[in-house]
Predict the 3D structure of the following.
Amino acid sequence: DQQVKQNSPSLSVQEGRISILNCDYTNSMFDYFLWYKKYPAEGPTFLISISSIKDKNEDGRFTVFLNKSAKHLSLHIVPSQPGDSAVYFCARYSGGGADGLTFGKGTHLIIQP
Amino acid sequence: DSGVTQTPKHLITATGQRVTLRCSPRSGDLSVYWYQQSLDQGLQFLIHYYNGEERAKGNILERFSAQQFPDLHSELNLSSLELGDSALYFCASSVGWRGADGYTFGSGTRLTVV
């Protein structure tokens, strides 16, 4: 069973500081991991991804880190801005016949002014 | 606007009924994916079509079916509806068939079964 788990339902961070969102996974062979952001009344929006052969991927204010030994990935947002307030989902793509993404249950990030 | 269009936005229907949800992918995208988001289960992959052909099934009930038409729009049919089918149903599209490249999601159809 290939799962992703986001253990923090919510996270509050001050504007301008770093936001760190965490995700744990099980049984990875050769996967991709993705982060999506979701605003109310909208669909999820793709943010950034990382292949399991890499440790880090960066795109502007967003950096994803993959710790394979701990089966853990994290999304860093620096600096945090009010528009970053949203629900963040981590997801994995295992490929082959398992074609869809497996999503975590999400973390609600609240950026405080 | 993500470019993925889902209709209707809201749907209220009674148990035992059948409904059809519609999705128009972004221009140029060949893949359509359907996901269900319920309060307790999060986002669950239902089914994937690529260029008119079914490519993969996820946790899709036998009461549910889907298809992708020659113009690439897709429909998700839900029948013999139960209260537990109340959820947000998202459609997503992508150019290729690899989910690793990320999808573009529509804004969803909220289905309420009463």
